[in-house]
Amino acid sequence: MAKSKAEQAFSATLVSGGLYKRNQGRLVRQLTALGLVAISIFGAYSLYNVLPLGMSAGMQKGIAVAVVVVSAWLSYRVVNFPRFADFLISVEAEIGKVTWATWDQLWRSTTVVIVIMFFLAFLLLAFDVLWQWFFRLINFLQI
Fold first, then answer.
1. Residues 13, 82 contacting (CB under 8 angstroms)
2. Which pLDDT tens digit goes with each residue over 53-111?
3. pLDDT in tens, 9-47
4. How many domains does the chain have?
5. C-alpha–C-alpha distance, residues 49 and 43, integer Å
6. Which top-rank group of organisms is this from (predicted)?
7. pTM given for the model
8. 62 plus 126 within the same structural domain
């Protein structure tokens, strides 16, 4: 079977060493690659812990390191795959358009949320006590 253009492009990207649109979306691509590598490190650590006990420690470590190295290379290549890189570049551009709240607005909003949470907790407690009293009054609850 013949490979599609997308499959050919992806396999060609995996073996190349170049960067796609080097200066665009740099931060988000670096952080994405770092996140993927961190996930692979945790996965390799878990794999190291579940490999058969009959294996030598050197072989267990070698397999875990190989998984991390291959995952790191794949992470580097995936964030430079044109379609994914363009997506990450557009994500960074959209994040740059966001109007972030000031610290004062953040504190006020947080205070409102916490006060409402305590108010609702008190209200639910009051309803619970009221219904317990009512059900005991009509002898529905025997405690």
1. yes
2. 677 878 888 888 898 999 988 888 888 888 888 888 888 888 889 888 999 999 999 99
3. 666 666 666 666 666 777 888 888 899 999 999 988 888
4. 2
5. 10
6. Bacteria
7. 0.57
8. no
Q: Are residues 111 and 73 in the same domain?
A: no
71/89 Cα distance (integer angstroms):
22
CA torsion through residues 75, 78, 84, 89, sign: positive
How many residues are present in the chain? 143
Side-chain half-sphere exposure of 115, counting CA atoms within 13 A: 6
In whole angstroms, give the CA distance from residue 68 to residue 57. 17
Domain that holds residue 5: 1-98
Q: What residue type is assigned to position 42 of the chain?
A: F
20/82 same-domain check: yes
**Neighbouring residues of 68: CB distance < 8 A, sequence distance ≥ 6:** 37, 40, 41, 44
Residues 78 and 129 in one domain: no
- DSSP letter string, 19-78: PSSTTSSHHHHHHHHHHHHHHHHHHHHHHHHHS-TTS-HHHHHHHHHHHHHHHHHHHHHH
Cα–Cα distance measured from residue 112 to residue 71, given in angstroms and rounded to the nearest whole number: 44
**How far, in Å, CA of 41 to CA of 106, rounded?**
35
